[in-house]
Each structure stands twice: as structure tokens, then as C-alpha cells.
Amino acid sequence: VERSLRVLDGAVAVFCGVGGVQPQSETVWRQADRYHVPRLCFVNKMDRLGADFEQVVSEIASRLHGNPLLVQLPIGAGDTFGGQVDLIRRKAYYYDPEEIATKLRIEEVPATMRDEVELARHEMIERAADLDDRLMEKYLADEESVTEADILTAIRKGTLSGKVQPVLCGSALKHMGVRPLLDAVVDYLP
């Protein structure tokens, strides 16, 4: 792991939605810090009983001293996990189990989550604005004038500098969230 981290341009740190930050995760995270490896966080196994997205994000901040930046919120957890809400695009991603989640269905944010999504999105834009002066100017002038490209640029800048780690979620075994994760790799990592 030590040798690999010396040559990596970026990494995806995968955390269990149930177990959270584990001792091996702490060791690898410290090594990645040492070699200044930019990284994304993926909270996996959101479909398992006992999955707690907020708890894992909290552990990334407290135990790893990371700076997690939510770019997605899960739609449900455990048996009710159905997909994710993309905070940047304000869209919900759903997966059809019979298609082994290879088909991504994009829909509007569920009505029950709209307030939570808007609050999380506002916080994400505010934190992203701290990473990019141009975005800060637009944000202070008019938050609604901030574009998707502005947000992506600021988050990429923050990720590459190691100031933030974008957090996504899903269930890799069922291919839920893998495509948005790969898109995030392209958007945020070198």
C-alpha cells in the first residue's frame, strides 16, 4: 500500500455503511495524507441492515480528521435503500434490481427529501465557495446564479489540494452508485 500510494494520482476511499471507519482505513488514510493523495469517499453497503450514512461521514471527520463534502445523499438505507440524490444536479438516481442496476434512472428529487436536499445543497455550495474565489463572488451576489460547472470546478480544486473529500454512497455489489462514482473520479481527481 505504501509503495502504491507514492505513485497514485488519486484514490477512492471505500467505507462500509454499517462498520464505518475501520482501523485499516485509518492506516491507509494517514499514508494517503503523507503522500498528498487526493481522494473521494464512497460509503458502500448502504443496502445492508444498520447502514448509517451520517454516522460514517461523522467518523471520517472525527477519526480521520478529513473534511468530507457531501455531493450525494442516500435515498433510504438498509432494505429501503433505492438510490442517491445528486446535490449538484438536484436529481435522484434510481436503479432497477432486475437489470442488476446497470440502468440508471434519473428522476426528480422525492418530495419527502426536498427540504433536506436544499439544505444540504446550500451547505455544499457554501463550503465549495470557500475553495474558489470566483464561486464565492457569484455565491455572494446570487446563489441561484451558481452553475453546475462552477460547483464542479470548485470541488475539483478543493479535492486536488486535499482541502475536501467529496462523499458519495451506494452499494457496489448491486452496482448501485458505481456509475456516478466513476463520473466523480473523472470530475474531481487528476
Structure characterization notes:
The structure is a single chain. This protein has helices at 2-7, 23-34, 53-63, 114-129, 133-141, 148-160, 178-188; strands spanning 11-16, 39-44, 68-70, 72-75, 83-86, 91-95, 104-107, 165-169. The protein is of the alpha/beta class and 190 residues long. The strands form 2 sheets. Strands 1-2-8-3 form a 4-stranded parallel sheet, with helices on both faces. The protein has a 4-stranded antiparallel sheet with strand order 4-5-6-7, with no helix packed on it. α4 (114-129) crosses α5. The model has no long low-confidence stretch (mean pLDDT 93).
Largest sheet: 4 strands, parallel
The whole-number mean of residue pLDDT values reads 93
Q: Could you state the order of secondary-structure elements as H and E?
A: HEHEHEEEEEHHHEH
Basic shape: globular
Poorly predicted segments: none
**Distance N terminus to C terminus?**
19 Å
Number of strand segments: 8
Strand order of the largest sheet: 1-2-8-3
Which quaternary structure do these chains form? single chain
The secondary-structure class comes to: alpha/beta
Give the C-alpha Rg: 16 Å
Question: Beta-strand level of the residues, as a percent range?
Answer: 15-25%
Count of separate DSSP helical elements: 7
Portion of residues within helices:
40-55%
